[in-house]
Design goal:
Blueprint: H1 10-81, H2 83-89, H3 94-110, E1 121-123, H4 126-130, H5 143-149, E2 153-157, E3 162-174, E4 177-188, E5 206-210, E6 214-216, E7 222-225, E8 227-230, E9 246-258, E10 261-264, E11 267-278, E12 287-291, E13 294-296, E14 304-313, E15 317-319, E16 325-334, H6 349-353, E17 364-366, E18 371-383, E19 388-389, E20 402-403, E21 406-410, E22 418-419, E23 424-426, E24 432-434, H7 436-443, E25 457-464, E26 467-474, H8 479-492, H9 494-501, E27 505-512, E28 518-521, E29 524-528, E30 535-538, H10 545-565, H11 588-592, H12 595-602, E31 609-616, E32 619-627, E33 631-633, H13 635-641, E34 652-656, E35 660-662, E36 666-672, E37 676-678, E38 684-686, H14 689-698, H15 713-716, E39 727-734
Helix pairs in contact: 1-3, 8-9
């Protein structure tokens, strides 16, 4: 058999093998492509699901940012409305109150309503959280699981100033793809930028700010409805009380002030026949009065002063004129007995450390005849100092102040401390001392235990037309013994005290609310019994004397703060001495107004004055008047700047480096570098804080704002806060429990 070598058919086999191989490669490639496409789809669906889930979380965060903005705005408004009260209370700052309001508002918006604002941990209401999402997204929110596990916690970290929502969980499941995100959401309390203690400058709440005086000279039925400040910057020789200056001065006429605050670096002074009413008890309108002294002049006659509110007096209330009447209701704090205070002084401070200087003691004195001092409507009467026989006004440099045993005194009470010449024992060397035997026989009781043995009496010189005369008064070991002596003198010589006081007191006399008021007294109080005939005395309480120290330091610093910047919490007032010693320095006008800019610009104005109407979006908000010099607000000024086209009152801000004289009705803010004169009877000066703030907000061209140093509202406005930065994630987890 013959075998042939033949290659036919091999090519076909090779082709078939190649085709099979290529087919396998194609199938593999196709399979890989399909797998890749499938994986990409899965990855895409997973990413989409994740982004959708994350978007739900972001929507919740966005909703919380809006809630935070709303809560902050509401808190901002609450603090603004209550700002004066917050400062007066002094227990918390405006920022602290803002934090409290913010937390309260957020709890209202998020909590389940089952907890009160007393703790730190609450449950947030998942249904309220769902309202932050649109309807299609709400199914992603794991409400039931969170509730079942009790994980929906809302924690308040007040000290650290934030709120946190625990275990906010979201799950999205689409086409068998599922993504779960779990996170905590932290909401920090926005930082409210408060300049000088307030959101709006405090001066926007005032009707009158005079850097020297507010004066009324014979005009009757004048009304001021709004806060008042008087700076007494033109006083000289502060240390000389004979040159002390009134901030609120009436020389005849009548003035009614309805205000939350009346502040003066100087005195309230009534001369001539004057009537001054501050606050109104019948209308329940109270005023916080902060002044250096309150007095009626020795030449005043039939003057009447009524104060309803919290009366805070650095030094004295003196009734010096004839037939004068003072009616006090609310609270009266005469809080000083020293020039300054040391932080380590304890409970013995009062007995050993009262300044024997009338300049630094808060007391009440009746020096004029036929006087009335009615304090029946006071719930608190505090007098930390003592009355003195003062060296001032005697024209003798040899005199010293002589401390008495009373905190409320009538001029005739000096008889208790006066030592007649018959009881002075003179020695051959020219020295003198009390003749104890004769004096004790006259009094019918022993006095040696009360008297300073080294110098038993103090000389007091008065200049007469015939020459200088010398009188002698007892010199006590300390203040407590001076009061004890007065108490004993009253018991043994009550008729002398009563008969001596009769010319100085009407039947109403000095009247207290027997047993119905808190008395914080350094010394004794002489008062008239309800029968209008007899007098009595109230004594100090040693247990309450440490309280006087706390009042002295706290109220002293608050008064210092209000003199410098109207509010009670200025940082600079908490440093250094408690008192503002040089009251002519650091004038308030220069704190508020850029005086240099005003003077420089005014040189280019006609008559050194500029006026402007404040418009915004076509709405007239009011007018401003600027002047380097004096301004006279009369009927022409009122028609031109103080009323609109329909004759309605239009708010106005008047800023003048000189005096402002007011002889017609005014609404707005008067800001004077010197005096404000209330010239005409029957006029009204009315504050309108809301409209003044709106006017300043509307001053986009800075007609007035550019001259006001402290105007910071646009920087502090809650609308300027970027709330998104205050809401953040913590403990963020994906697909983990």
């Amino acid at each position: 058999m013959k075998i042939k070598n033949d290659n036919r058919g091999s090519t076909l086999l090779f082709v078939l093998t190649a085709i099979a191989f290529i087919g396998l490669l194609g199938v593999a490639a196709m399979s890989a492509t399909i797998t890749n496409i499938s994986m990409r789809k899965i990855e895409g669906e997973t990413k989409k699901n994740f982004y959708d889930t994350d978007n739900v979380i972001e929507q919740i965060r966005a909703g919380l940012i809006n809630l935070s903005s709303e809560a902050s705005g509401a808190a901002y408004q609450e603090v603004l409305e209550q700002y004066a009260t917050i400062c007066e209370d002094g227990t918390k700052t405006a920022q602290e109150e803002f934090d409290n309001c913010y937390i309260r508002n957020m709890l209202d918006k998020l909590s389940d309503g089952m907890s009160s604002f007393d703790g730190t941990t609450y449950n947030y209401d998942v249904t309220k959280m769902e309202q932050l999402l649109n309807e299609s997204e709400r199914n992603a929110f794991l409400k039931r699981e969170i509730l079942d596990k009790g994980e929906n916690k809302l924690e308040v970290h007040k000290k650290e100033r934030y709120i946190v929502l625990r275990n906010v969980r979201v799950e999205q499941e689409k086409n068998t793809f599922s993504t779960r995100i779990k996170t905590d959401i932290r909401m920090e309390i926005p930082e409210l930028k408060i300049e000088n203690g307030g959101i709006y400058p405090e001066y926007t709440n005032y009707a009158i700010l005079a850097d020297n005086k507010v004066k009324l000279d014979g005009a009757w039925a004048v009304n001021v409805d709004g806060n008042v400040y008087a700076g007494t910057k033109e006083r000289t020789d502060y240390g000389d009380l004979s040159k002390r200056q009134a901030g609120i001065e009436l020389n005849g006429g009548s003035l009614k002030i309805i205000a939350d605050y009346l502040i003066s670096r100087g005195d309230i002074l009534l001369l001539g026949d004057s009537r001054l009413r501050i606050g109104d008890k019948t209308a329940n309108q109270v005023c916080n009065v902060w002044v250096e002294n309150i007095s009626t002049d020795e030449n005043s006659n039939h003057s009447i002063l009524e104060i309803n509110g919290s009366c805070n007096v650095e030094d004295d209330l003196e009734i010096n004129g004839k037939n004068n009447s003072v009616y006090l209701s609310g609270e009266y704090y005469g809080y000083h007995c020293k020039k300054n205070y040391l932080p380590d002084e304890g409970s013995s401070w009062l007995n050993n450390n009262i300044d024997k200087n009338s300049e630094y003691n808060s007391a009440i004195s009746l020096n004029g005849t036929n006087s009335t001092l009615n304090m029946e409507q006071l719930s608190v009467l505090e007098l930390a100092g003592r009355a003195f026989i003062s060296r001032y006004g005697t024209e003798s440099e040899k005199n010293k102040d002589i401390m008495l045993g009373e905190s409320v005194s009538v001029r005739s009470n000096q008889i208790a401390y006066f030592v007649p010449e018959d009881f002075i024992q003179r020695n051959v060397d020219g020295t003198y001392q009390l003749d104890y035997a004769k004096y004790e026989e006259y009094l019918s009781f022993s006095v040696k235990e009360y008297i300073n043995q080294e110098q038993s009496v103090i000389p007091y010189y008065l200049k007469r037309s015939s020459g200088e005369e010398c009188y002698y008064y007892l010199n006590f070991k300390n203040e407590a013994l001076a009061e004890k002596f007065y108490e004993k003198f009253y018991r043994y010589k009550s008729h002398t005290i009563s008969s001596g006081a009769d010319p100085y007191m009407t039947k109403e006399g000095i009247r207290l609310a027997d047993g119905k008021q808190a008395l914080l007294l350094s010394g004794a109080v002489l008062y008239k019994e309800k029968d209008g005939q007899n007098v009595g005395i109230k004594l100090s309480n040693d247990e309450l004397k440490p309280t006087l120290l706390r009042y002295a330091v706290r109220k002293g610093r608050e008064y210092k703060s209000r003199q410098l910047g109207l509010i009670g919490t200025l940082p600079e007032a908490s440093k250094g001495e408690v008192r503002l010693e040089d009251k002519a320095k650091l004038p308030l006008f220069e704190r508020i107004v850029d005086v240099d800019k005003l003077k420089n610009d005014a040189a280019l104005w006609e008559r050194n004055q500029k006026t402007g109407a404040i418009y915004k979006d076509g709405i007239l908000y009011g007018n401003v008047i600027l002047a380097d010099g004096d301004i006279n607000w009369d009927s022409d000024m009122r028609r031109q700047y103080g009323t609109d086209d329909d004759g309605n009152m239009l708010p106005c801000i008047v800023v003048a480096t000189g005096d402002i004289s007011v002889s017609d009705d005014f609404e707005g803010l008067l800001l004077s570098g010197r005096d404000v004169f209330l010239k005409s009877g029957g006029i009204s000066v009315t504050a309108n804080p809301q409209k003044i703030k709106q006017l300043l907000e509307a001053d986009t061209t800075k007609i007035i704002v550019s001259y006001l140093k402290e105007y910071k509202v646009s920087e502090n406005s809650s609308e300027q806060i970027n709330y998104s930065k205050y809401v953040s994630y913590e403990n963020w987890k994906k697909n983990k429990d």
